[in-house]
Amino acid sequence: MTDRSAPSGERSYLTFVRAGAASLHGRLIAEDPSRNWDCCVSWYVPAADSAGAEYSSEGGDNKLEGFLEFWRRRSSPWRYRYVLLLDDDIYFRPGDISRLFELCERDQVYLAQPGLRWFTHTTLNVCVRNPVCELRRVSFVEVMAPCFASSALADLMPTFGMTKSTWGTDWAWGCLSEGKHALYVVDAIGIEHTRAGDRHGGAFYRKLRAMGVDPEEELRHVRHMFPDFVGAKTLPSGHVFRRGVPRLLAPVLLRLFEKLKFIVRLRKQISRQLRLRRARGASAAQK
């Protein structure tokens, strides 16, 4: 691990990015000149320019294993109160990572994630933003961009090696936190997932196949370990509503927007069909 801790001073937050050649971390750093966070770049390709990041790290077959490698070589004392574990294709608007940390600190959040914008690449509707909330209490936080309080990191780090694909690890977080700690989607912060997951042709999934790893089988195994978990959903109460939203109407509006997320699912289905048609067309053209 390379430590380039320059004039970061005593920042209390860390963004850890698992990075390839097209990583967005340089843009995120450049667009947040007054950032309250340090950055560690964990390379899954040969290390390149870390673009102003305070740390550079290598190792591990996935993001969570990469963080464990960084953790083993970390400097002491550990000063970071919150850690954001970020995929390299997640884009925050200028300053929003800093604001995410501030909101988590303000409400003493245990484990959270920013909300996904409605027309970006999504997997689960529960993680899509609800415009009525600042923080929406949920049962599940996705592995794509989780933000851990230091206590959550200590509690949940033993799960980081649970699967090679990382599939199911976030399911375990929800199970282990259920009834003990509140989990949130921070709807006040919207992110864009700039690349669609490619389970068939993507480099990470090709690597898994070469290792003999089936992500779906790993997910089934974790779910079998926690058969009573409620699954990924927005919970009935415990939300922090946006200022200006009438308190009597807020719960009704929240449920309304949760139902309207069928639009997100419909758009995803249409996009998938269009991608399949383009792929078939390209395949036919090559014959």
Your description of this structure?
The protein is of the alpha/beta class and 287 residues long. The protein has one domain: Spore Coat Polysaccharide Biosynthesis Protein SpsA, Chain A (Alpha-Beta Complex), CATH 3.90.550.10. 34% of the residues lie in helices and 20% in strands. The chain is built from nine helices and eleven strands. Strand 2 (13-19), helix 1 and strand 3 form a beta-alpha-beta unit.
Judged by helices, strands and strand pairing, the structural class is alpha/beta
Report the radius of gyration as a whole number of Å. 19 Å
Based on DSSP secondary structure assignment, what is the total number of beta strands? Answer: 11
CATH superfamily: Spore Coat Polysaccharide Biosynthesis Protein SpsA, Chain A
Termini Cα gap: 48 Å
Please, what is the average pLDDT? 91
**What do we call the CATH topology?**
Spore Coat Polysaccharide Biosynthesis Protein SpsA, Chain A
Number of helices: 9
Shape: globular
- Overall tally of structural domains: 1
Strand content: 15-25%
Task: Encode the helix/strand succession as letters.
Answer: EEHEEHEEHEEEHHEHHEHH
The biggest beta sheet is recorded as: 11 strands, mixed
CATH top level label: Alpha Beta
Helix-residue proportion: 25-40%
Low-confidence stretches: none
Specify the CATH architecture: Alpha-Beta Complex
